[in-house]
């Protein structure tokens, strides 16, 4: 199977091939410019950077409509979705193309990078650009940052979060060839990350539970309920909506932009004939907690992927834990609750700093315990009661804040484990770097039971997810030591823009981790159990 690495640069997607010997990205094969035909006033109004509102914020791959897809979130609120087979076909068609270029000897030279665009005016550097279209194009209300998608039992859903401070769920009906959507209420602030955690189907009724975090410190679980209605479509509106270039989440935005080129009166008539295929209930907030720090990422992980170990010390990486005392306490609490109390235990996860000393142990230092634990005692008891009444699941949420990493049970949001400040390396601080010293990048590799977290500033840690006698937690297994040497590049301050992984073997799980920096540097690491 041929694999590619895709990077986002301004408004362009850059597709790399891999070198078979080094397993590192070798050369650029294709560039796809995602800029639209023109920049509208609403593009500038809703974007983070109005002077160039088409910057790519986030890339994600996954399965949608029974195919592997690449999702691209743009600063102008546009969500592009390509089937990966579409991009692979473009690489095969244009990746080895030759293009005449004039040089000093007026000879024909090979151009190693073919450029394709989404519109005829998007690229000024290509004399006759090749125009390609994404398989889906969705327009949201504000700068788009969070994305997740799932296909289950033939049903296709995706969730997205933008700077309108709300979550939108979109259901794609493959027979109708269109999307249907519902939006949540606004929360306190912008939502940088979102994940689909669970989905249940009972007949035509569906329940989807979604976790998200906000930069005001909120962790929220939304529940979306909807039913699929059976029935025929009006032929006229079916033919129009299956071919519309953009799907708009918001009707007002659609009228303001009118990128689909249809008269508003005619559009209103078509929508009046639209069959209500998906009947949405009002989205519910079923669980919420507010932390003292900004929250940046949230990743779900099933308990089946946690690594079984031989002691509590091995779970949390803390040799000072009194094993006998803690296990006796857990057994006593289990008898009192008449239920396993292992899932209601909090332990801090010990981390190493860059000054060659261990942090103070949270068991022996009250102030440090307070710093480790993200919630109050009253809040803990409320969440224990909630889980005893409503039941629990096998899912956990792994959350990164500006400085810490935490693990919460789903959906009660009881915190089982948390670190104190993960990184304390003094990287040269200036105006250019002040917004990069937060843990805003994370990913999980279930087969390796690991949670990888990074700051844009250049600091990376790998946490191992472990379990012992019903107690779940995480321990720090590795911290990348070369942050200082990589912080300054040829063109000034160097920051991490993304992480990606690639599975290398089928038998024993071995992965390559690729760390990409803003100046184009890509470093590969091999990680395994």
UniProtKB/TrEMBL annotation:
Matches recorded under Pfam families: CRT10
Domain of life: Eukaryota
Name this polypeptide is given: Uncharacterized protein
């Amino acid at each position: 199977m041929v694999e590619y690495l895709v990077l986002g640069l301004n408004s362009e997607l850059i597709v790399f091939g891999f070198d078979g010997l080094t397993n590192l990205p070798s050369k650029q094969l294709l560039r796809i410019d995602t800029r639209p035909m023109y920049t509208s006033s609403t593009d500038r109004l809703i974007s983070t950077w109005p002077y160039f509102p088409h910057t790519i914020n986030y890339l994600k791959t996954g399965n949608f409509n029974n195919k592997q897809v690449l999702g691209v979130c743009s600063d102008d609120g546009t969500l592009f979705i390509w089937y990966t087979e579409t991009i692979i076909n473009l690489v095969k068609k244009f990746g080895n193309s030759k293009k005449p270029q004039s040089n000093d000897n007026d000879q024909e030279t090979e151009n190693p990078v073919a450029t394709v665009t989404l519109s005829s005016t998007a690229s000024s550097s290509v004399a006759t650009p090749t125009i390609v279209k994404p398989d889906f194009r969705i327009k949201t209300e504000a700068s788009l940052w969070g994305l997740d998608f799932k296909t289950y039992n033939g049903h296709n859903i995706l969730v997205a979060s933008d700077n309108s401070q709300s979550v939108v769920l979109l259901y794609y009906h493959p027979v109708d060839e269109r999307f249907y959507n519902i939006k949540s209420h606004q929360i306190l602030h912008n939502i940088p990350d979102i994940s689909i955690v669970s989905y249940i189907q009972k007949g035509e009724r569906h329940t989807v539970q979604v976790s998200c975090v906000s930069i005001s410190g909120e962790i929220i679980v939304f529940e979306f309920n909807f039913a699929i209605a059976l029935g025929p479509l009006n032929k006229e509106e079916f033919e129009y909506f299956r071919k519309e270039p953009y799907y708009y989440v918001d009707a007002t935005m659609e009228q303001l932009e009118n990128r689909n080129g249809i008269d508003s009166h005619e559009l209103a008539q078509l929508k009046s004939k639209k069959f209500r295929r998906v009947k949405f209930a009002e989205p519910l907030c079923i669980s919420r907690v507010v932390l003292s720090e900004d929250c940046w990422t949230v990743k779900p992980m099933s308990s089946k992927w946690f690594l079984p170990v031989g002691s509590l010390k091995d779970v949390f990486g803390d040799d000072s834990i009194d094993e006998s005392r803690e296990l006796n306490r857990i057994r006593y609490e289990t008898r009192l609750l008449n239920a396993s109390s292992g899932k209601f235990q909090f332990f801090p996860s010990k981390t190493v700093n860059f000054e060659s000393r261990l942090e103070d142990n949270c068991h022996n230092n009250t102030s440090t315990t307070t710093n480790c634990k993200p919630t109050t005692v009253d809040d803990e008891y409320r969440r224990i009661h909630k889980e005893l009444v409503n039941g629990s699941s096998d899912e956990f949420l792994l959350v990164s804040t500006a400085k810490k990493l935490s693990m919460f049970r789903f959906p009660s949001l009881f915190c089982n484990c948390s670190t104190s400040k993960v990184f304390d390396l003094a990287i040269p601080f200036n105006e250019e770097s002040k917004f990069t010293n937060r843990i805003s990048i994370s990913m999980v590799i279930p087969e390796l039971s690991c949670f990888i977290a990074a700051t844009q500033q250049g600091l990376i840690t790998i946490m191992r997810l472990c379990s012992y006698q019903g107690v779940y937690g995480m321990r720090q297994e590795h911290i990348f030591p070369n942050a200082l040497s990589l912080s300054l590049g040829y063109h000034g301050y160097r920051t991490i823009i993304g992480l990606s992984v690639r599975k290398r073997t089928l038998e024993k799980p071995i992965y390559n981790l690729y760390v990409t920096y803003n100046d184009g540097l890509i470093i590969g690491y091999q990680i395994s159990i």
